[in-house]
Every structure is written in structure tokens, then in C-alpha cells.
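Run log // design_07
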């Protein structure tokens, strides 16, 4: 396992934290180049019956980078962020995002719930957030 040297994701969990061996093994089955796609992390969580945050924490402790955020916020090359502001989002969607946000922040979980409720792509919700200058935070995987 070739650990990323550019950033120490382990630091946010304290010096005594250790990766969960079962989750680590699942992550290793589906990753390459020390990168764990967001969708894969969620699939591991669902298949294992655990919270996505546990997969994110284990990835951090392995010093793996989470990539290809399903909301388009990080992990894409070369730009990192691929989501763009959608000024033409429906008024209903804008209202739902604004109502769910607190202090100009919308939790990732809420973004997913709004996408499901409106039957739109997750990136449609994040594009609406961009247009409204609302940050999506915190991440369900703990990436931010």
C-alpha cells in the first residue's frame, strides 16, 4: 500500500486511531492509487451495514484520498471541483435548499435528501447551492 505523502488525513483522528481491519480490507478491494471514489465508499458502507463516516475515517487512517464527490465538490482532475452555479434552478428547489441550510451551510445528507425528494441528480442540488452561495458542509464521509 503506497501511502499519499502530500497530505496527512490521519491527523484529524488523533495519534491512537487505527483503521478498522474489515473496512480496510473492503477499501483495498475497490481502490487503486490510494484513491477511494465517493460512490464506492457509500457502496462499502451500505454493503457492510455501517455509516459512511466509518468508511471515510478508515480511508483517512489509511491516508487514502476520497475522490469524485457525488456532489461534484472535490476529487476530479484537473480542476478538483466540477460543479458550477445553476442560476436557472427551479424556485422550488432553491427554496428547499435555502430552508434546509443553516448559517449558509447545507449538510451533505440534506443535499442528498433534497435530490431524492425532487428526483434530481445530486449535482443539481450542489449547483443550486453554488448559485445561492451556500456551502455544502459537513460531508457524510468526513472529507470536509
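design_07 sequence
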Amino acid at each position: 500500500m503506497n501511502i499519499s505523502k502530500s497530505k496527512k488525513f490521519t491527523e484529524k483522528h488523533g495519534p491512537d486511531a487505527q483503521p478498522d481491519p474489515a473496512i480496510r480490507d473492503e477499501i483495498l478491494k475497490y481502490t487503486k492509487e490510494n484513491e477511494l471514489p465517493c460512490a464506492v465508499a457509500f457502496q462499502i458502507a451500505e454493503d457492510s451495514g455501517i455509516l459512511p463516516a466509518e468508511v471515510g475515517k478508515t480511508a483517512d487512517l489509511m491516508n487514502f484520498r476520497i475522490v469524485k464527490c457525488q456532489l461534484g465538490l472535490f476529487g476530479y482532475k484537473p480542476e478538483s471541483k466540477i460543479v458550477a452555479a445553476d442560476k436557472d434552478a427551479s424556485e422550488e428547489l432553491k427554496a428547499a435548499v435555502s430552508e434546509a441550510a443553516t448559517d449558509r451551510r447545507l449538510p451533505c445528507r440534506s443535499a442528498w435528501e433534497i435530490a431524492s425528494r425532487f428526483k434530481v441528480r445530486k449535482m443539481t442540488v450542489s449547483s443550486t447551492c453554488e448559485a445561492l452561495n451556500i456551502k455544502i458542509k459537513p460531508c457524510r464521509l468526513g472529507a470536509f
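Residues 39 and 118 are 20 Å apart (CA to CA).
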